[in-house]
Amino acid sequence: MSEDVWLPIAPEEIEGLPEGPRYLFWDGGKDGDQPFPGDPADCVLYVVPYMKRWPVKVRPLEQLTNVRVIQTLTAGVDDVTARLSAIRPGVQLCNARGVHEASTAELALTLTLASLRGIPGFVRAQQQERWESAFRPALADKTVLIVGYGSIGAAIEDRLAPFELARVARVARSERTTARGPVHPLTELPSLLPQADVVILSTPLTEATRGLVDAEFLGRMKDGALLVNVARGPVVDTKALLAELESGRIGAALDVTDPEPLPPGHPLWQAPGVLISPHVGGPSSAFLPRARRLLADQLTRFVNHEPLRNVVLTTGA
Length: 317
Prior knowledge:
Elements: E1 4-7, E2 22-25, E3 43-47, H1 54-58, E4 69-71, H2 78-81, E5 92-94, H3 101-117, H4 119-127, E6 143-147, H5 151-160, E7 167-172, E8 176-178, E9 181-185, H6 189-192, E10 198-201, H7 215-220, E11 226-229, H8 238-247, E12 251-254, H9 267-270, E13 274-276, H10 287-303, E14 311-314
Parallel strand pairs: 1-2, 1-3, 3-4, 4-5, 6-7, 6-10, 7-9, 10-11, 11-12, 12-13
Antiparallel strand pairs: 5-14, 8-9
């Protein structure tokens, strides 16, 4: 039996891969029907293809009988954890912490600024050759609440820093203190939401965060507030959000939706006060250099029997 590593990036394009394993390229193919590059039983480390449909990502799992590590190229791992029952105990699942922070934080800021300053309306007016000036809210002097203060949430605050905010409030699963200030637990959301002009969601999708942004959450947001979601679609109750948008009480900027992809005819497309981007927080020119560095580092650690980075869980533990 050989020790194979399946990579969705061609091995010759990743500088610094250590000698030892046999590196095989597999990204599922355009339609998800690409043949496996070798015997799945020989695969000891599986790097999940990026930006592929869920069935493609999990297709090999049941046959990876000797895999020791599953490495995603996404920050969230919810699409893989749903199928981990097919994996033997003792397998480490690692996420791509460090790969998407810059790109996702950039998009969070872009969506926030575009929504506040009315850029979508200006684009529509330009297409119709209409000069429509407007007095719009600035980000300056606003209070921003970041829900999900992990590495992406911290990167978002880094990019908010120059904008002369009145305050940044931070919320995560558990309370802690950072160099920038306190991180509040989720239980304090009811008292924090009414103070926020902008609420940015960057939390992972877990059982605790699925449907977190429900009618009660949205009802506590102040009139005229903006909800920005760069997390996962199911963190937000779509029906409850539609009710608030259609009332005109709040606005939203969504990089992720539930359902996703958002089908033609879905009422979110035409809801007032919403800006939608098609889940593009991660895929940018920033992705490949960081993904390559992560894989080279992880595989060096793997070959040298050193602790891996970004271990989210170990199956059977």
